[in-house]
Amino acid sequence: MPKSTPARKTTPARKSSSRKPVLYGAGVVLAAALLGYVSYQATAPDDSGPSSSSVADVAADPDAGVYPELAKLARRDAGDKLAQGRADAPVVLIEYADFKCGYCGKFARDTEPALVKKYVDNGTLRIEWRNFPIFGAESEAAARAAWAAGQQNRFWQFHAAAYAEGAKEKGFGKDRLKALAREAGVADLDRFARDAESSAASAAVSKDQEQGYGIGATSTPSFLINGRPIAGAQPAETFTRAIEAAAEKARNTEDAKSGRDGKSGQDGKNAEGAGGAAK
């Protein structure tokens, strides 16, 4: 089973002392501890221990392993240039990733396209990217460059180019990032270069990174699916099960709010009345 890439203990660009602390509820603290533990297990050298897939197992109870406070981290901003899918989609997958992470690339190439085709295209799923650079200066530069490409609506094209097979082995120096932007179809490369070095880019990356550390992510890739933490580039079935469970729960919640029977599609009162008449 593929394993996630471990985070470094410290990151030079992360200056937490200059930022306000991120405050979360007790449920998020518990989830952070769980995600941190699972992230460690996903990168542990001894495979005899518990597998990271344990957190992603979807039990019969759709609420098992789901933390409502984490679900609230979905931004659902229709103008978010680092997201794809309807802002009101019933399921939101948040991905915390680094462009230098090999397993992030594996997810991007092997799993994500199928999820987009099956769930994003039909309005079920929204994917929100969070830059979580953990491997030093080149990671930070690639994250800012991805954000800059997004300002010209080419984030996902840059994402595909940066995660192409063999791309990370070429590094993410300034010239290489410009070449990736050109490959991604970024129209104004001068603007791209300025944006990538701007304070706005640094602030956006820092915001995402702070959120990742705040929920206890210790490796890449790490995911949240409607508040369910998943660590590592798990098999596609793990994501499919989690998305299906979240979508089903969302449907049931909507049915309950509207007074409809989720299974029959009938109004609860009318169905009861019809049942009484049949007796």
TrEMBL record:
Gene3D superfamilies under this entry?
Glutaredoxin (3.40.30.10)
Listed Pfam families: Thioredoxin_4 (PF13462)
Transmembrane region(s) = 21-40
UniProt-listed InterPro entries: Thioredoxin-like_fold, Thioredoxin-like_sf, Thioredoxin_domain
Thioredoxin domain: residues covered:
33-248
Which SUPFAM superfamilies does the record match to this protein?
A: Thioredoxin-like
Tell me the keywords, alphabetical order: Disulfide bond, Membrane, Oxidoreductase, Redox-active center, Signal, Transmembrane, Transmembrane helix
Region described as Disordered: 1-20, 243-279
The family line of this record is: Belongs to the thioredoxin family. DsbA subfamily.
What protein is this chain from?
DsbA family protein
Organism, as annotated:
Streptomyces sanglieri
